[in-house]
Amino acid sequence: MQPIAQLEGTFTNVDGRYVIVVGRFNHHVVDSLVEGAVDSLVRHGVDEENIDLIHVPGAWEIPLAVKAVLAKVKPHAVIALGAVIRGGTPHFEYVAGECNSAMSRLQLEFNTPVANGVLTVNSIEQAIERAGTKAGNKGTEAAMAAMEMVSLLKALGGDA
Length: 160
Prior knowledge:
- Its EC number is 2.5.1.78.
- This protein is an alpha/beta fold and 160 residues long.
- It has one domain (22-123, 133-152): Lumazine/riboflavin synthase (Rossmann fold, 3-Layer(aba) Sandwich).
- Helices cover 45% and strands 18% of the residues.
- It is built from five helices and four strands.
- The protein has helices at residues 27-43, 62-72, 91-110, 124-129, 138-155; strands spanning 18-23, 51-56, 77-85, 114-121.
- A four-stranded parallel β-sheet has the order 2-1-3-4, with helices on both faces.
């Protein structure tokens, strides 16, 4: 029996252009996500000149900006950052669900990684925990996922 080949991305072949699309709503949490993402990219060798930040009002607007970036800028990866915090109405489910499903569709449509760092949490405390305290920094994690996918796609002979 032939052994199964294995391939995964690394964090050494991550050169490229990265665009971070940031929802400003809940900026007191999101700013820490951005800092974590940028720091992670730079620490792994991405030149700061190859990192662009695009700000939109909130998570609802992120997919439209991501689509425009993918179509016009053609980056190696997009990192989406935002925070949707549950309130007393069903608004949370609509915003979070549509944002997530749209980003999933876009990465498949454009064959480009879209790393999802949009927090969907029940409380401000949970958001703060995921923005660099107890639960790590989800912006850092999204940047790491983007870099790993860029590396993997390069290894697979893709455009990344």
